[in-house]
Amino acid sequence: MILQKAYDFFYKYYVVPGYDWVDTLTYGLILAFTVFYLLPKLKNLGFEIDKKFCISILPYILFGATLRELVDRGFGWYAGHSTYPQNFYFVSPTIYLTMFLITLAALLASFVLAKVLKRQYQYFFAGIGSALAFYNIALAAGNISRPETIFLVAGSMAVSLILTYGLVRRCKFDFVYREWNYTILLAHLFDASTTFVGLDFRGLVEQHVVPNLFINWLGTAAVMYPLKLLVILPALYYVDLELPGEEEKFKRRLLKIVLVVLGAGPGIRNMTLLVLG
Fold first, then answer.
1. Which of 143, 163, 185 represents a domain boundary (last residue)?
2. pLDDT digits (tens, 9 = 90+) for 15-54
3. How far is residue 14's CA from residue 23's CA, in Å, rounded to a whole number?
4. Pick from 143, 161, 195: which residue ends a domain?
5. Which residue from 17, 49, 68, 141 has the fewest beta carbons nearer than 10 Å?
6. Which residues, in sequence order, are CB contacts of 169 under 8 Å at separation 6+?
7. Cα(242)–Cα(30) distance, rounded to whole angstroms?
């Protein structure tokens, strides 16, 4: 009886696709443990988070963000994996774990290749990710049915950028221009724009627990813009304040990469869904 109840609980909250308070909190704790405990250990391998690494990780963000929607539609190599249990590792939030493992495996393989071939690991790391991302992008590009959505998102993004720029200047939020912070802000405004267009123009439904509360309360996904600013601006200020200088550079930049992924990932995934129709 106890085992059956435990199985039912696990199946309901961790296997069935979608978000609820239980899996949201659970995966949040796993993310915190990974970021603050596991990933910093990469520093012991002589690993450094610099501009080359940031560029080389971009293909993995593109690959992971487009993967879910392509799997759902069964395009290309993903045919036959659009339903449970075949899609378990490709739906949110499990896909974050899948992408973490793929990226980590590619990174470690790149370190090995770099040592053997006496080259910088970033070239191998970027090459593996680019091959994965290119396939997904080509697959998505060949199945676009709603190209007008691109202009809706671009217009919404432009308005949000103008308003945010005015806010940053008026309030003298100079920290936005420090070390990659503006990139993080752009990623989350892009996510907000795709959510706004998807829900208010296309009638889609928000899956995440917290945003859904505010969207249902106010009746518009435009609330995502102030929500993003209320969370991201203090987060950026706090990260720079608490992790200053060279001695904390690795952890600080690691957190910023995570913040980029949390914004760009859902945004690209939403954009893929919108243009595919």
1. 143
2. 666 666 666 677 677 767 776 676 677 677 667 888 898 8
3. 6
4. 143
5. 141
6. none
7. 22
